[in-house]
Automatic annotation (TrEMBL):
UniProt-recorded name of the protein: Acetyltransferase
One Pfam entry name: Mac
Alphabetized GO MF terms: galactoside O-acetyltransferase activity
UniProt keyword list: Acyltransferase, Repeat, Transferase
Length: 205
C-alpha cells in the first residue's frame, strides 16, 4: 500500500512521500496562481478552483488569500462563500454542503499527529474527515478539528474551536465549541419579519 493510499484510508502515513509531495506541489501552484488574481479575473478564478478541488459547485466565491494542502480531497457544494485567509488542511476528505458561509480566517484541519514525540520525529501523521452540512455559517477565526461533522442549519460563533460533532439547527460557540441554543421557529419568524421590513423600506426609497 502506498503512502497516499494510507493517507486516503485514514491510516498512519508519512507525508514526505514523493507522490504526496507532487500532489502538494500541484496544490501550491494552483493556490499561488489563485491568490495572485484580481477581482477582474473571476472566470480564471473559477477555472483554477475547478482544477484544485475534487468538486466545486456553482457560485463558489473565495476571497484571496486561500491555502490548502491538496485540494483534491475537498468537495464543495453550491453557493459557498469563504472570506479572507481560509485554510483547508485536507489530508482526509473535506465535504462542504450548499449555502455555506465562512468568516475570515476559518480553518478546517483534518490532519493529526502522534501524541508521542518520537512519532512526530518519525514524520508520522494521520487524517480524519470533516463534514459541514448545508446552510452553515462559521464565524471568523473558527477552527474545526479532525473528525468533526457539523449538521445542517448551524451557526458557529467566531473564535470557536470545534472538537466534537454539532447537531442540526443550533447556534454553537466556544473553546471547546458547545451548543448555545436551538434555532427554533421563533428565530425564523424574527428574521422573516426583518426581511419583510427591509424589502418594504427599499421599495419606498
Amino acid at each position: 500500500m502506498t503512502e497516499k493510499e494510507r493517507m486516503v484510508n485514514g491510516q498512519i502515513y508519512r507525508a514526505n512521500d514523493a507522490e504526496l509531495r507532487a500532489d502538494m506541489k500541484r496544490a501550491r501552484v494552483l493556490t499561488r496562481l489563485f491568490n495572485q488574481t484580481t477581482e477582474e479575473q473571476q472566470a480564471y478564478r473559477r477555472e483554477l478552483t475547478h482544477q484544485l478541488f475534487a468538486q466545486s459547485g456553482a457560485d463558489l466565491y473565495i476571497e484571496p488569500p486561500f491555502r490548502t494542502d491538496y485540494g483534491c480531497q475537498t468537495t464543495i457544494g453550491q453557493r459557498v462563500y469563504m472570506n479572507y485567509d481560509c485554510i483547508i488542511i485536507d489530508v482526509a476528505p473535506v465535504t462542504i454542503g450548499d449555502n455555506v458561509f465562512f468568516g475570515p480566517r476559518v480553518g478546517l484541519y483534518t490532519a493529526g499527529h502522534p501524541i508521542s514525540a518520537q512519532g512526530r520525529r518519525d514524520d508520522l501523521e494521520y487524517g480524519k474527515p470533516i463534514t459541514i452540512g448545508n446552510d452553515v455559517w462559521l464565524g471568523g477565526n473558527t477552527a474545526v478539528n479532525p473528525g468533526v461533522t457539523i449538521g445542517n442549519n448551524v451557526v458557529i460563533g467566531s473564535g470557536s474551536v470545534v472538537t466534537k460533532d454539532i447537531p442540526d439547527n443550533v447556534i454553537a460557540v466556544g473553546n471547546p465549541c458547545r451548543v448555545l441554543r436551538p434555532i427554533d421557529q421563533a428565530e425564523e419568524d424574527y428574521w422573516a419579519r426583518e426581511k419583510e421590513q427591509y424589502f418594504a423600506e427599499i421599495a419606498n426609497d
